[in-house]
Amino acid sequence: MFTSQKIKCAIYARVSTDRQGESIENQVSQCQEYISRLDGTYDTSDCLIYRDVAVSGYYTSVFDRAEMKQAIRDARENKFKLLVFKEVSRVGRDKQENPAIIGMFEQYGVRVVAINDNYDSLNKDNITFDILSVLSEQESKKISSRVSSARKQKARRGQWGGEPPLGYFVNPENKKLEIDEEWSPIPRLIFDLYVNHGLGTFKVAEHLNNQGIQTKNGFMWSREAINRIIRNQAYIGSVIHGTRRNKLKREYEENGKMSKKKIQLRISKDEWQIVENAHDAIVDKHVFYQAQQILLSKSHHRTPRRAYHPLTGILFCGECGQGMVCQKRSHKGKTYRYYICKTYHKYGRNKCSQANINADELEGTIVKTIRRKLETIPSELFSVTVNHEFEMQRLNQEIVSRTNKQEKLKKEQLDFFKQRELFEEKTYQNEMINKKRQIEALNDEIEVSRRQLENLNTETEKSAKYVHLLKDFCRLELTEERMRKVLHELINKVTFNKEHVTIEYFFDFEGCSLKDA
């Protein structure tokens, strides 16, 4: 006797980092209860369950979650045909990603149900899902704002949030820092070595490691770890809040795939919230501020890492292809500069036979060559391409106008959604589809205008840059630093081979047009 195979079911549950109080098992239980009430065509006895624990729905991409990725693989292999979750926010709190992930499951023939939001993909109500995703993202931002506000209030009371600094522990009753007598001698020793004994951060770390003193986590000391302790105002009794702010960064690949990550932005010191004398100090304030002065003086006298020789970074050896660097040599009180191949400099003449080249002579030859080429370019070329201000202004006005219309339609769509019970289903669907089409049409128009504006901006910026370079090169003299900047803006690559020099430009002097760098 033939019996049809029952439809396999699956459950997805997630507990976010900002809602740890909500049990993941409660979500699973609610979904199991929903599945148990389905008709006999569904297999309600053995559901696949996917759990993502302590994963943010806003900052963590749907496609970066272990259990969600497994669910996608299983859907592709037809291991289930019904996916149930408590609500749209459990999938995520990103209005751009949520529709994409649901569309992926539907592509594999999976029916998707969000219980609390009354969403069922069988009804093809994608507009409702889009709006629910927007509302979910807005709620996530509200939660983040509330959490940030709570942390701010905690800091104002002098309470500590997070891992305590070395030498302290957090009192569980008042949430304030208290001195840990076992570990507090280490930060005192660090400040003493740095301020009173003149050791640098590297030497302080070396001293601690030689003494067998480890960090609280059992690691060896580094100059970075020493630096963090010396800069930490907690050691003079202060609690600081608001030094950084989280921000979501979306990145789009050429194939259209989006990835996202949480980045931290440094906040200006003027906006920091500092509560002094919030707890007992381990280090005397006078010693602490002496340490800050030493740090500041060393940073001021540190030699810049970036070389300012004009051709460093764009000059390459024609023999081995390696870059050429500038060296200095003094003879009879006079200093000479010359460019030398990196391969020869490291391994000797038997690895590369490229001869050294006098820096002043090579730079002078290149500057003269560029000046001759620039003088042949008609100035009208630049003035014509720069004069786009009127067109750019018109495009900006179009973008603003269409964006305002789009926002108005979105608000109307959201208001209509909130009052959907007042309308017949067909009327509701038609109105929502109409507004969605209008929004999409405006979006296409805005995108076209933005691309046109971007092209004009790029052309204008490039043209303005070359007008600026032309004026610079007309000067009789250029400082070494200014020459470097101008050469790097004009030249892509210089190749030196024996006595022959080849220059690759960012500008097509023959055709008098701008190349793409």
UniProtKB/TrEMBL annotation:
Coiled-coil stretches noted in the UniProt entry, renumbered to this chain: 392-463
A GO biological-process term: DNA integration
Keywords: Coiled coil, DNA integration, DNA recombination, DNA-binding
Chain ranges of the Resolvase/invertase-type recombinase catalytic domain: 8-158
Residues at the active site: 16
GO MF annotations in UniProt: DNA binding; DNA strand exchange activity
Protein name, per record: Recombinase family protein
Organism, as annotated: Cohnella endophytica
